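Closing statement on the zinc ion sub-project.
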Amino acid sequence: MKYLKTEGLVIRSRSYSEADKLLTLFTLERGKVPAIAKGACKAKSKLGASVQMFTRGEFFLYMGRTLATVTQSEIKNSFHSLQYDLVKYAYGQYFCELVGRLMEENEPNREVYELLLAAFEFLSKEIDADILARSFELKLLRILGYMPHLDGCLACSGLNSSYRLSYKEGGILCQSCSIRDPGAFKISLGTLSLLKKLLYADFTRLKVLKVELSQKREIKAINKKFFNHNLGLGTCKSMTFLEELKN
Ligand SMILES: [Zn+2]
């Protein structure tokens, strides 16, 4: 099949030459698709607006061997407000980088698609973007099969008043089972409860969460280690940019 019509999100968009743009689309039909939008940088281009970062659109693609060509496109949602708010743009870019790095070509995943789309929608509303990001990370880990076990000790299922978090084991251990991983560290019940809310609650329910700055930092570090341990993610360029922006 040389031609493909698919809904997709623009997760990377950069000028390639004076006239063309190189894109990465995350599509419903084919997962990640590298594509070129010829002439998209020209003022009169019909493609121009639809190949901006975060755009949700219907894309008509000619599938080349290594690169697709966007022949036509229709915008479904441009997430316009994200283009003009540098901090929100940076968060959006971070979500895109995670998906771009963790998903493969020809590997469609509707759950990841819907998660990313929902993240764009909520990011463009009044929401604590930090909380949204932590929830996005945990939900993405769950979809990719690396959900941290947070309900009772993962070894003995025991409910306890004190737990240790183990990246190696992928969740929490009670005191007696924590000998399984000497690297496991104590996690407060408050942080544990917050992690669970971020993992399970819909984005709509995040609004009511009141989170201290210290707890935000703690959860950010925890999530980062889960990504590094399970997926070898390393540093995200967009996260570094975001941190510089906020300092
Ligand atoms: Zn146990």
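Residues 84-247 form a domain with the de novo design (two linked rop proteins) fold (CATH 1.20.1440.120). With this model delivered, the sub-project is considered complete and its resources will be redirected to Aim 3.
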